[in-house]
Amino acid sequence: MQDFIEINFGPQHPSTHGVLRLKAKLDGEIVKEIEPVIGYLHRNAEKLCEMTFYADNLVYFDRMDYVASMLMESGYLEAAEKILNIVPPERVLWIRVIMNELSRIASHLVWAGAFGLDLGMLTPFFYCFAERDKVLEVFTEICGSRQETNYMSIGGVYQDITPGIVDHIEAFLESFPKRLEEIYKIFVGNDVFISRNKGIGVMSREVAIDYGVTGPMLRASGVNYDVRKAEPYLVYDKLNFEVPVSYKGDNLARFLVRFEEMRQSVHILKQAIRKIPDGPFFNPKAKKSMMIRLRGDGEYYARTESSKGEFGVYIVADGGVKPYRVHVRSPTFKNLSVVQELAKDQMIADMVAILGSVDLVFGEVDR
Q1: CA atoms 213, 108, 167, 77: torsion sign
Q2: How confident is the model at residue 293 (pLDDT cuts 50, 70, 90)?
Q3: What's the whole-number mean pLDDT along residues 11-28?
């Protein structure tokens, strides 16, 4: 019987992207078995949502995927508004799309910067965070917060999108594509980056489907599935955009898909800014009902496309002012589970690159 070396990565290791522990069995420098261990961050957010009024639960969703909080809020509201029978005004739907796509760009920039850092590339980290900061400035202007935004609410958004904010977004959309291509060239022009990702961490279409992988990871394995197209919500069916797909299934494919997603988000934003209609930014019924607390009945599951994949929110209501049950389908949890397949028989140095390509945020995994 062959003896393996057993080592721990994390939960303090910087390249585990948060409080993740990896139990690895090694044959020299080759990974033979790896087991992700989670639970170090667990905050019981789902149970807290069952003890809190519907409109107040947004703060817990903000802190799930905390680098894409607008996307988290939007996912919760897709379920909560159906349960409460609240229909947001048309203008609100367009505002949410704009905030969602800005949030998607900000999230992918965090991932790209950290991914480069994992592989010893310091320069793109600064470039990515400089561009992300421009998005956060828009968020600060519209809601007063950079990261945990708490901007959306049942029936609307807390502040209208003003002409000044529109100008700010348009200025970003004017400058960002050029900067994005500069960042892209820093990565793909680096022979070390290419060699450490091309053909590494290959995930087949079948393995991705078996593990319930979604988002850029799934699309990088040749599956053309995006909730915005498959089951449109908000006003995505009124927008023209492409779903990036690669058939290589490796680290490099996941990198290329995410960068193309940012280009497509810019395309969506330019359309949404032009098409946003006039009107109220809050449903009067919802605003008035906040004081007497909204009541819901029934059950509903909503799926949205977060920056990590399919984000699902399931709510059961019993007619009270608080949800009876709240459960979240975490795309990152599913994506993390497949790491044991991707890392098997790879070099331990490549395991760091594979983990970086997954895009992990543990506020969403350890809800």
Answers
A1: positive
A2: confident
A3: 81
Q: Kindly tell me the burial class for residue 6, based on how many C-beta atoms sit within 10 Å of its own C-beta (0-12, 13-18, 19 or more).
A: exposed
- In DSSP terms, 27 is beta-bridged to 30
Average pLDDT over residues 70-94: 94
Q: How far is the C-alpha of 255 from the C-alpha of 267, rounded, in Å?
A: 19
Three-state SS at 18: coil
Place domain 5-365 in its CATH homologous superfamily: Cytochrome-c3 Hydrogenase, chain B (1.10.645.10)
Phi, psi of 5, deg, nearest 5: -85, 130
Q: Which two tokens stand for residue 336?
A: 């993390």
Tell me whether strands 5-9 and 21-27 are parallel, antiparallel or unpaired: antiparallel
- Which CB contacts under 8 angstroms, 24+ apart, belong to 169-172? 169/98, 169/102, 169/138, 169/269, 169/273, 170/273, 172/134, 172/135, 172/138
In DSSP terms, 367 is beta-bridged to none
Q: Which two tokens stand for residue 1?
A: 């019987």
**Residue 153 one-letter amino acid:** S
Number of Cβ atoms within 10 Å of the Cβ of 171? 12
Q: How many CB atoms lie within 10 A of CB 73?
A: 27
Q: How far is 51 from 319, CA to CA, in rounded Å?
A: 14
Q: How far apart are CA 237 and CA 80, in angstroms?
A: 21
Q: Tell me the pTM.
A: 0.94
- C-alpha 300: how far from its chain's center? 21
SS3 at position 142 = helix
Helix axes 163-188, 251-275, angle to 10 degrees: 160
Going from N- to C-terminal start, the domains of the chain cover 5-365
pLDDT in tens, 23-37: 989 988 889 999 989
* pLDDT at site 11: 80
Note the pLDDT tens digit of each residue in 201-238. 999 999 999 999 999 999 999 999 999 999 999 999 99
Cα separation of the two ends of the chain: 40
